[in-house]
Amino acid sequence: GAVVSQHPSWVICKSGTSVKIECRSLDFQATTMFWYRQFPKQSLMLMATSNEGSKATYEQGVEKDKFLINHASLTLSTLTVTSAHPEDSSFYICSARDLGTVGYTFGSGTRLTVV
Amino acid sequence: AQKVTQAQTEISVVEKEDVTLDCVYETRDTTYYLFWYKQPPSGELVFLIRRNSFDEQNEISGRYSWNFQKSTSSFNFTITASQVVDSAVYFCALSEEGNFNKFYFGSGTKLNVKP
Question: Residues 87..106 of B with a Cβ closer than 8 Å to A: which?
């Protein structure tokens, strides 16, 4: 079945640095990928829709300059958290839709801790 | 207003008990999809089911069953003869006709199945 690989699974970084998270569709092409954020014991909130070859579409309230999204190929989208602060600490998870299936496949998530 | 409500924050049962997870949704669209996902401690979201708004037929898959009732805007999930491996957070989600790619997740229900 469709598999989405997300890397790294966890990362700790210092405040002020930038962190890049990768989301890869392993056995299918994904023209569109999605980035979600999940706070502890809370639900997932869609941050942005990543479109291959064009700019990402951000949800209201999400800072596009802080959360840079690049979808350079049909199998890879990256989320870069720029100038990270402790409040950016969260669980980030991506998803992609394989047109051959009925659901959206989610990655395993990345736990970001900013110290 | 929250589009998907999962009123049960956490449920604890003993193995072999049946358990029902509630999900109530809100939408003005006539065409929409409802989903259930399982999030084990490892973090990834595992797709369980998708149901479109025109299909109210209940579904059974092994020990899992789903009851979709448009009259009460509910899409409840029942696990029969629960097992320890069922322990996870379960999310109900909605996507609407305006943008089927955008998921509205409930806050999740944490299920603890004790041996």
Answer: 91, 101-103, 105-106
Q: Cβ(A37)–Cβ(A69) under 8 Å?
A: no
CB contact under 8 A, B101 and A97: yes
Give the integer Cα–Cα distance in Å for B51 and B73: 13
Per-10-residue mean pLDDT of chain A, 115 residues long, equals 88 97 91 89 88 90 94 92 96 84 81 95
Nearest to A33 by CA among A2, A63, A5, A71: A71
Listed residue (B95, B36, B85, B43) closest to B61, CA to CA: B36
State the pLDDT at residue A43.
Answer: 85
Cβ contact B67:B59 at 8 Å: no
